[in-house]
Design goal:
The structure holds 2 protein chains of 2 kinds. Chain A is mostly helical. Chain A has a domain at 2-59. Chain A has helices at 2-44, 49-71, 80-105. In chain A, helix 1 packs antiparallel against helix 2. Chain A starts with a helix and ends with a helix. By secondary structure, chain B is mainly alpha-helical. Chain B has a single domain (15-206), classed as Four Helix Bundle (Hemerythrin (Met), subunit A). Chain B has helices at residues 21-51, 61-64, 67-92, 96-128, 136-165, 176-206. The longest helix of chain B is centred in the middle third of the chain and has 33 residues, at 96-128. The radius of gyration of chain B is 20 Å and the shape is elongated. The chains are: A mainly alpha, B mainly alpha. Chains A and B meet through helix 1, helix 2 and helix 3 of A and helix 1, helix 3 and helix 6 of B.
């Protein structure tokens, strides 16, 4: 009897936790949509490209951060190894992008 | 298989997708795969950045791209990312029907995205004569964006197969990791798209 009670308690506790996590997900989705709108607005308003390109890249990195850390749970416990793998991947991405652009621009 | 792994609703594991050793391995294996995917797309982005101005007299980035369609595609894919989060939320609460419903919505949004992309490519080919062979820019553009579209096609066939195959089985510890790995893969497709709409389309419109 007490056993059944305790498992049921854990389940409702877990359900509440899942719900709270889902609310965070919806908030991060709203922020991502907002960043997308800002990025498109900057391009439509024809802000000079010297300012707009770094801002666009920054907005993209923030959005991708939300995607990785919230939607893909990289911030959670037990995701240390996947996080390392992705940091490595991002490092290679930046290196490759810089190498290819520097080779062609200079 | 499903018999040994069926979920006891009274003793629900905290995360059914990682309750078994097989599930944990699937999870880690997918992340290693995503690390490799990052490098693949890094190379394609690098190639595109190097060749985007080599239009060979053909249409340039500014003449070609339109913001409206790209915005629609972005919203479709971003929303499909959220709907797959909803599906995993219902998986954690052991609600198979709602999980199937949200996975179905995810697949529909993915299909809509794909339709927009096919329309976009057809528009470029017929109205601008801009093909894979037009210029170095054309090759780099279709390789990068096409590779992403190919990932969407693969993801769609993955989720539709999973949904059909497990429709009568219900949720258990054997198939929960499969749905979870799909959701992770689908988020990654969205990550790549964020960089495509920023680096290819938005930066192509300003420079």
């Amino acid at each position: 009897m007490t056993d059944e009670m305790s498992t049921r308690k854990i389940n409702s506790f877990q359900k509440q936790k899942n719900k709270e996590e889902m609310q965070k997900m919806v908030v991060s989705f709203a922020l991502m949509i907002f960043f997308t709108l800002v990025a498109f607005a900057l391009v439509m308003l024809e802000v000079p490209s010297t300012y707009v390109i770094p801002i666009l890249l920054l907005l993209a990195f923030v959005q991708v951060g939300f995607q990785f850390f919230y939607f893909m749970h990289l911030k959670d416990k037990g995701h240390e190894v996947p996080a390392q793998i992705i940091y490595g991947g991002i490092f290679i991405t930046v290196m490759v992008a810089l190498t290819f652009t520097i080779i062609t621009w200079w | 298989m499903s018999h040994d792994h069926s979920i006891d609703p009274k003793n629900m594991p905290k995360d059914p997708s990682k309750a078994t050793t097989e599930g944990k391995h699937k999870f880690m294996g997918l992340w290693i795969f995503l690390g490799g995917e990052t490098v693949l797309f890094a190379c394609l982005f690098g190639t595109y950045l190097a060749l985007k101005d080599s239009a060979a007299g053909g249409p340039t980035t500014q003449e070609l791209y339109g913001l409206g369609l790209v915005f629609l595609m972005t919203v479709l894919l971003l929303t499909s990312s959220l709907t797959s989060v909803y599906a995993i939320y219902h998986m954690k609460n052991n609600d198979f029907k709602k999980m199937q419903l949200w996975m179905g919505i995810t697949a529909l949004l993915g299909l809509a995205f794909l339709a927009c992309e096919i329309y976009e490519f057809a528009h470029y080919i017929h109205d601008y004569g801009f093909t894979f062979r037009s210029s170095a820019f054309g090759s780099a553009f279709y390789t990068l964006v096409g590779f992403h579209g190919g990932h969407v096609v693969f993801g769609l066939s993955w989720i539709i197969t999973l949904m059909v195959r497990n429709a009568k089985r219900g949720l258990d510890l054997y198939n929960a990791p499969k749905f979870n790995t799909f959701a992770l893969y689908w988020h990654f497709i969205d990550v790549v798209w964020v960089f495509i709409f920023t680096v290819v389309y938005l930066m192509g419109m300003v420079s």
